[in-house]
Automatic annotation (TrEMBL):
Keywords: Membrane, Transmembrane, Transmembrane helix. Pfam families: DUF4212. The lineage of its organism: unclassified sequences, metagenomes, ecological metagenomes. NCBIfam families: Na_symport_sm. This is Sodium symporter small subunit domain-containing protein. It comes from marine metagenome. InterPro entries: Na_symporter_ssu. Residues 27-54 form the Sodium symporter small subunit domain. The chain crosses the membrane at residues 33-53.
Length: 54
């Protein structure tokens, strides 16, 4: 195999994977960011509360 040869995966459509306009991708990231922000808020309030109590 020559170093300049490229392997192309025909089963993967990179445009669909990279395109952020895909509605499933938008829904995924919206839910993901909401979960992360919720967990950060809980972490902040618990650590802040423990800092005051202790």
């Amino acid at each position: 195999m020559v170093g300049s040869e490229r392997v192309v995966a025909k089963d993967i459509n990179l445009d669909k994977m990279i395109n952020p306009q895909n509605s499933k991708v938008k829904v995924y990231w919206k839910k993901n960011i909401r979960i992360v922000l919720s967990l950060l808020a809980v972490w902040f309030f618990v650590s802040f509360g423990m800092g005051i109590l202790l």
